Amino acid sequence: MHIRRRRGWEIPESAATPEAVYLSRREALGAGIGAGAALLASPLLATPAAAQRVSDMPDPSADLYPAKRNDAYALDRPVTPEARSSTLNNYYEFSYGKNVAPSMTRFQRRPWTVKVDGLVEKPFEIGIDDLLKKVSLEERLYRHRCVEAWSMAVPWTGFPMADLVALAAPMASAKYIQMESFVDPKVAPNQRDFRYPWPYVEGLTLEEARNELAFLVTGIYGKPAPNQFGAPLRIALPWKYGFKSAKGIVRFTFTDKQPVSFWEAVQASEYGFWANVNPKVAHPRWSQASEEDIATGNRRPTLLYNGYGEQVAGLYKGLETQKIWY
Ligand SMILES: Nc1nc2c(c(=O)[nH]1)N[C@H]1C(S)=C(S)[C@@H](COP(=O)(O)O)O[C@H]1N2
Ligand SMILES: [Mo]
After folding, report:
1. Where is the signal peptide (predicted)?
2. Has residue 147 been placed in a domain?
């Protein structure tokens, strides 16, 4: 049996509860005896091998790619190869491990409806392809930093979150946006794990959502995003830890109350609302002073706001002394 050293980030965010530690250990030890039985029982996998899996269906928005690159967002490091970034993901609805794609065989990217509600002039629901007609896609090179102290750099395709805020026409009383991921336990096996408060929820202040960096992502590497990256709609907030960047988003609720995020609900002592990247504030389980590049394994010092201070520092004026980083 091939045994290798576990790296720090392989004791993942999902280990935030003792139950999850037990579960992942059982998964590792059990070598999938239970999982094997589940596969046999699965009607989807019992279909002829020639039948196309729903998760492999072509994306109807493929013609929109590649989108023009916006050169305002440059990198200080090479782009992470897709072979690496697409096999080291966090998507707990599907897997508590990092190789998520194989657990997504039942995921379907269409139909996909996005709901905009709460403190807005006219709440609405819109299909993802109609939403794509109302915005224009561009490509941006962004760094991405997980609180587990690993990082990558990728070419996302998407549109500014500010454009969605404009479509929503928030009322003056709206101060925050809550983002919700999809719920479908038939598709996402871990949503049957009632120890977690599904759906995955994240939140931003309205001011953060309007910041130029807040980017709603539909694609990566010049094509529609593969499922494990959070297709067909996720967000990228490169100055915050990765857990703020919800995947598989189906709802944006404008509110006057600070949203309680998924991880905050699980373990408030470890995860807070702001989650701005800060090398000086250690997470209880991970120093944030440096990070490991998932492509090269090299470590580099972590930068305040993940190096995006020029764009976002102004959002936090006067808050620096608060313990706001988790
Ligand atoms: N719905 C949902 N969104 C999620 C997560 C998740 O488990 N579920 N994980 C988060 C975490 S912890 C990180 S680091 C990023 C990972 O994004 P990537 O797999 O594209 O690198 O997605 C975030 N968004
Ligand atoms: Mo993360």
Report:
1. none
2. yes
- Measure 145 CA to ligand 2 centroid, in angstroms: 7
In this structure, what CATH number is given to the domain that contains residue 28? 3.90.420.10
Whole-model pTM: value is 0.87
- Three-state DSSP string of the chain: CCCCCCCHHHCCHHHHCHHHHHHHHHHHHHCCHHHHHHHHHCCCCCCCCCCCCHHHCCCCCHHHCCCCECCCCCCCCCCCCHHHHCCCCCECCCECCCCCHHHCCCCCCCCCEEEEEECECCCEEEEHHHHHHHCCCEEEEEEEECCCCEEEEEEEEEEEHHHHHHHHCECCCCCEEEEEECCCCCCCHHHHCCCCCCCCEEEEEHHHHHCCCCEEEEEECCEECCHHHCCCCEEECCCECHHHCCCCEEEEEEECCCCCCHHHHHCCCCCCCCCECCCCCCCCCCCCCEEEECCCCCEEECCHHHHCHHHHHHHHCCCCCCCCCC
Is residue 321 one of the residues assigned to a domain?
Answer: no
Ligand 1 pocket test target in 90, 104, 233, 270 with most atoms within 8 Å of CB: 90
Q: Tell me which residue has its CA closest to atom 10 in ligand 1.
A: 243
Return the ligand 1 atom nearest residue 91 CA: 7
Residue closest via CA to ligand 1's atom 18 equals 89
- Is residue 20 very low, low, confident or very high in pLDDT (cuts 50, 70, 90)? very low
The domain containing residue 187 runs over which residues? 13-316
Query: Quick one: pLDDT band at residue 33, thresholds 50, 70, 90?
Result: very low
4 found inside a domain: no
Would you say residue 325 lies in a domain? no
Going by the annotation, the residues of the binding site are: 89, 92-93, 146, 181, 234, 245-247
Q: Is the pLDDT of residue 37 over 80?
A: no
Query: What's the number of domains the chain is made of?
Result: 1
Of ligand 1's atoms, which has the minimum distance to the CA of residue 228? 19
- Confidence check: pLDDT of 1 > 60: no
